[in-house]
Amino acid sequence: MSMSSPIKGSLEMNFHEAERGLSPREALEESNRCLYCYDAPCIQACPTGIDIPSFIKKIASDNIKGSAKTIMTANPVGASCARVCPTEELCEGACVLNHSTKPIMIGNLQRYSTDWAIQNKQALFKAGKKNGKKVAIVGSGPAGLSAARELALLGYSVTIFEAEKNPGGLNTYGIVSFRLPQSISYWEVEQVKSLDVEIKTNTRVGVDVSANQLTADYDAVILAIGMSDVPKLGIEGEDLAEVYDAIEFVKATKTKALTDKFIGKKMAVIGAGNTAIDAATCSVRLGAEQVGIIYRRTQKEMTAYDFEYEFAKQEGVGFHWLTNPSRILSNDSGQVTGIECVKMVLSEAGEDGRRRPVPISGSEFVIPVDGVIRAIGQSRYVGLIEQFGIQHDDGVVILEGDSYKTSNEKVFACGDVIFGKGQGEAMVVSAAQQGKKTAYEIDLTLRGETVDIA
Amino acid sequence: MADLSIDLAGIKSPNPFWLASAPPTNSGYQVQRAFEAGWGGAVWKTLGDPILNVSSRFAAVGFNGQRVAGFNNIELITDRPLEVNLKEIYETKKRFPDHAIIASVMVEPRQEKWHEIIKRIEDVGVDGYELNFGCPHGMAERGMGAASGQVPELVEKQTYWAKEAATKPVIVKLTPNITDITVTAEAAVRGGADAISMINTINSLAGVDIHSWNTIPHVGGKGAHGGYCGPAVKPIALNMVAECARNPAINVPISGIGGISNWQDTVEFLLMGSTGVQICTAAMHHGFRIVEDLVDGLSNYLDEKGISSVMDIVGKSVPRYSDWGNLDLNYKVVARINNEVCINCNKCHIACEDTSHQCIDMLKGTSGSSFLRVREEDCVGCNLCSIVCPVDGAIDMIELTNELPPMTWNERQEFLGGIGNESVDFVK
Predict the structure, then answer these.
(1) For residue A349, what pLDDT is reported?
(2) Among A14, A8, A350, A345, residue whose Cα is nearest residue A178
(3) Hey, how many other C-beta atoms are within 10 angstroms of the C-beta on B357?
(4) Contact: B289, A62; criterion CB under 8 Å
(5) Phi, psi of B216 (to 5 degrees)
(6) Mind telling me how many Å the CA of B350 is from chain A's nearest CA?
(7) What is the pLDDT of residue B425?
């Protein structure tokens, strides 16, 4: 037994879900506090349009199965969303009780019902009668899964192609376990699989199967491939071993035994989106002694959700605002020793509407660190998009008008792959809604009806 | 999915949820909205000679900050012309042929009045009638509603008169403002009722404004008693349903009414002998959309229990309801406190100490921590501690095995009578 065993044990504890769920009594009291508004603003604030008063009323009447079904009907990844949605900006932010007492804990109640369904092994849906049509979906993340669920309910034979070993995409690999355990994502995957949806994992479209083959073999193809790795910073020293890609960094904590090599270390995270927060809090829970987020703009411009930011602060993550890295420093043996930064100032707004940061010359300073994590956004799967021969704008698939149709009439796209630059962070819940809508659009198209949703 | 359809004395509806005769069923617009939302049936707001209503009609009683624990009203029967109601009933039935529409009726206790109104309603295609012998306010002052519903002979006669004219099933709606509802229920059966429904509202005054000294509600500074309904009346209604259900002389189906707010309340009424339920206050509080959870919750409940038809649970708890004299005197439960769950509010202790049997001790552990323990030998199994306990699972009522064979009061008296011929007085 090595000395590090007890610490490793506690590291694993650190990655258990941080927030406990509501007790039955808490859920009962909270659900009875809901006013059960008519034409409720919380429903409108939910991108997937969950009938929130209805699912809450069903908790109050102890019809928890019905409650879970109400949630999952509107949102095929509703159990994940109960944990990762920025509820204070969506449903809870819209709750009328903000103007009276305090808003209902909608996210926690949603988790209560879906947790019940998970624990009680409930199969909530049945596949529709097969209509003989086949749809291929590339990617099993929130958008792909949601599209698959809706198409399966409508009677389509659905095959999902997933490059990774396990399905679920972002929810399986990209969100820290202490916020979203993998088991939740896998349950959502199982719900979809139970509708006769085939998921071919370890199958990379463009490598193991060509784009042309999919468009030839299927009546429609959905591109729900999300985004790729974190781009390079373009600064000296970033090829050192202790410079990490945030996506890979978080993924490692969900796919491998937790490493103890960050215990007592100082880490810097570049960027201030939700992935940056995840990488930073992950570092803390891996035992890092000091973790700082470095961001070239201010708190006002950061794209991380407020609750993520609050969570990071509670975890002891520090923030260096208006700071841009210029160089990663190392010693003779190639170990990272620090990060040289320059102070920034915000000038006029750029193309994306956000104020552009410019460096203050001569303001360079060094933050001593043992490792650096890049979290400055994600690059695009341009190669694969081009294999499909569809139009895109720098890796963002271009759609026809208000639809999810690409320039190839057989190919549809949804989720992060259509998410344009400078729009903050794409939400899981939005991807789910896009997946649903893409499914309906395919259904209308393949049934030869005009797309005219009443 | 279980079959939720019911057949109540020949009246069929796709589910057991009917709107009770009340403000929600005042018009075709409302009843059609209700059917669209998923209600199985509706008892149209009572037809009769149009009346005048007052302004300021409803009042509710809250409880600890929750609204509408009880509801009180002084609204009378329909104030719309009979022809208008009949036209709308006809249109609604035509649009929703599979849904049950029952006409609630109230006229003066005269044979020709009953014949006349039933004949007029017959043509519009209602599925049945509900004779309103229950409305406790206003109409009762004119000898109708509860006033006639409190006189068994009038219940019997009027039922008979209605039956003389009706070709569709007749339900008699009973008033709870009576000492023993089985007496009027039996009278309805003797008059030929195809079914009975209960309860109508209970005489009530919702409150008095302690600042203005006006009644709640008041009409220009003056009040009159109203009819009480809503969740608070459920136990009263449930008992009345059960008393009728277990009475062999009352051998007609029962439509259960009184404080039913959700699918669980519905299951209770069905188990106690209701073939279906009627709901009003919960709909008035939240709208017709509540029927979605009523249907979904009931359906999930039946599926989970492996029951294929809702009719299969009707009356299943009735054999378990009896007279006190048939309860086993040797059955024993005691309270047991789970100290790991207990949060030490000591409410059980003070409830027992002050108002029950002084058997919960407040003790200190060796580490000085407080804990509570029941002296089981002194516990009478009254349940009070578990009732006041705010934490689920902190107090269990445990059934003790008893060496003595079961014996009821009635068996005991019979036995004593057999051996000694002692006369035993008892106060009920």
Answers:
(1) 86
(2) A14
(3) 14
(4) no
(5) -120, 115
(6) 23
(7) 56
Tens of pLDDT, residues A392-404: 999 999 999 999 9
Q: What's the whole-number average pLDDT of chain A?
A: 94
Which tokens hold the place of A73?
A: 């009907």
**What amino acid is encoded at A166 in this protein?**
N
Q: State yes or no: pLDDT of A454 exceeds 50.
A: no
Q: Which residue of A has its CA nearest to B392?
A: A25
Sign of the dihedral defined by the CA atoms of residues B337, B341, B344, B348, in that order: negative
Size of interface A-B (CB pairs under 8 A): 36
Q: Does B143 touch chain A (CB under 8 A)?
A: no
Is B290 in contact with A62 (Cβ distance < 8 A)? no
List the single residue in A24, A32, A63 with the smallest CB-CB distance to B300.
A63
Q: Which chain A residues are closer than 8 Å to B297 by Cβ?
A: 58, 61-63, 66
What would the pLDDT profile of A135-186 be if each residue is shown by its tens digit? Answer: 999 999 999 999 999 999 999 999 999 999 999 999 999 999 999 999 999 9
Question: How far, in Å, are A32, A42, A169, A443, B59 from residue A52 at the CA level?
Answer: 13, 7, 26, 27, 29
Cα–Cα distance between B254 and A454 in angstroms, integer?
Answer: 44
Neighbours of B109 (CB within 10 A): 18
Mutate: best of A26, A32, A52, A57, partner B, most B CBs <10 A:
A57
Which parts of chain B have pLDDT scores under 70?
419-428
Residue A117 pLDDT: 97
> Is position B135 annotated as part of the catalytic site?
yes
Letter string b/e over residues B298-331, b meaning 16 or more CB atoms within 10 A of that residue's CB: bbbbbeeeeeeebbebbbebbeebeeeeeeeeee
Closest chain A C-alpha to B290 CA, distance in angstroms: 8
Does residue A53 carry a pLDDT above 90?
yes
Closest C-alpha to A310, from A17, A47, A41, A87: A87
B287, B293, B392: residue with CB nearest A63: B293
pLDDT given for residue A8 in this prediction: 55
